[in-house]
Amino acid sequence: MTSFYSGFEASSSDEPATNYQSNQVAILTTPTLICTVEGNESGVLVNNAGAAAVFLGGPAVTTTTGLSVGAGATVTVPTYGGAKVSLYGIAAATGNTVSFLHPTA
Fold this sequence. Notes:
By secondary structure, the protein is mainly β. The chain has one domain: Jelly Rolls, CATH 2.60.120. Helices cover 0% and strands 45% of the residues. The chain contains no helices and 8 strands. The protein has strands at residues 19-27, 32-37, 44-48, 54-57, 67-69, 74-77, 85-91, 96-104. The strands form 2 sheets. Strands 1-8-3-6 form a 4-stranded antiparallel sheet, with no helix packed on it. Strands 2-7-4-5 form a 4-stranded antiparallel sheet, with no helix packed on it.
């Protein structure tokens, strides 16, 4: 069994994260906002808790252009560069939920 936290790295900044933000989001068949984070954070941990693949990307993500995350899989999406980053997901059918976790300053 893969740990929900595997692959998640601590922030590389000198100041530790003061908190974590987490939530569960139902992924629709249209691009669905998962979260928005500061670009200087160490990334967003995303777990697909649904029974089918979801696809990650920007606001125009599709099931053919997005990063595929299989059912039960967990990925870390990097967020670098200092600018706010919004992460979206889409699914071929309704009924999928993702969980996310990321540090906040």
